[in-house]
Amino acid sequence: MQLNHLNDLARYLKEAAPVFGFHLEETQIELFQKYYQMLLAGNEKCNLTAITQPREVAVKHFLDSLTCLLALDFPPGAKVLDVGTGAGFPGLPLKIFRPDLDVLLMDSLHKRVVFLQETITHLGLISISAIQDRAEDFGRRENSRENYDIVVSRAVAKLSVLAEYCLPCVKIGGYFISQKGPDMDDELAESAKALAILGGRLLEVKRLQLPVIGDARSMVVIEKVKSTPGVYPRKAGTPAKKPIR
């Protein structure tokens, strides 16, 4: 990789992060640069992202991931689950910025999980791991059900479906953050019944624009107010085919 690409990534991070009140230490900038190198190398082996230019990666991937922290005050040492993490977003940037977090990255594709495991090792991070699993299966396991303080997910599925993937894993009193695009009104209306059945309560929809790029984003914050019924999540494939209406 050309050195100027790494320098550009650092420059855009330093320019954009303060807009949202984020201060990045030099060691964190270096970790993001290493992550960027791994991302481009991994992209040659499997489809990780169509976004590869320094400015877009810095803002649309790294900073966009950190905006979860604007939606909710993450407690020190919080257990965080990232469902459908793909190339590690938002969970891995959150871990770089908040080393105290205990993060689990979950994805259903083996190649992506291998990439994430190699990246975690290369970055020298601890208290973070990546596993291959389906959300429908993971949410039914005794040691993962209602075991996480915060569950995050970025653009994986419609909210009514995503809630069934994520809310079973959230502790009562914990939170689920869904990162979405700007147009959320129809999805919110369609998901109302699912949220109520699954034990969630809509707390806030935080809307923002990414600096430098200007893209609009929405973050849906859902509080877990009661236990999820044992029949959820349903077997793999069912939530997407037959969303709760």
Give the helix/strand layout:
Layout: H1 3-16, H2 26-43, H3 54-66, H4 68-71, E1 79-83, H5 91-97, E2 102-107, H6 110-123, E3 128-132, H7 135-138, E4 148-154, H8 159-166, E5 170-180, H9 185-198, E6 200-209, E7 216-224, H10 238-241
Parallel strand pairs: 1-2, 1-4, 2-3, 4-5
Antiparallel strand pairs: 5-7, 6-7
Helix pairs in contact: 1-2, 1-3, 2-6, 3-5, 8-9
Radius of gyration: 17 Å
Question: Can you tell me the CATH class?
Answer: Alpha Beta
- Tally of structural domains: 1
Measured between the Cα atoms of the first and last residue, the distance is 48 Å
Helix content: 40-55%
Relative strand content: 15-25%
Please describe what this structure looks like:
S-adenosyl-L-methionine binds at residues 84, 89, 135-136, 154. InterPro entries: rRNA_ssu_MeTfrase_G (IPR003682), SAM-dependent_MTases_sf (IPR029063). The model has no long low-confidence stretch (mean pLDDT 95). The chain is an alpha/beta fold and 245 residues long. Helix 5 links the parallel strand 1 (79-83) and strand 2. It has a single domain (3-241), classed as Rossmann fold, CATH 3.40.50.150. It is globular, with a radius of gyration of 17 Å. The protein has helices at 3-16, 26-43, 54-66, 68-71, 91-97, 110-123, 135-138, 159-166, 185-198, 238-241; strands at 79-83, 102-107, 128-132, 148-154, 170-180, 200-209, 216-224. A 7-stranded mixed beta sheet has the order 3-2-1-4-5-7-6, sandwiched between helices. The protein starts with a helix and ends with a helix.
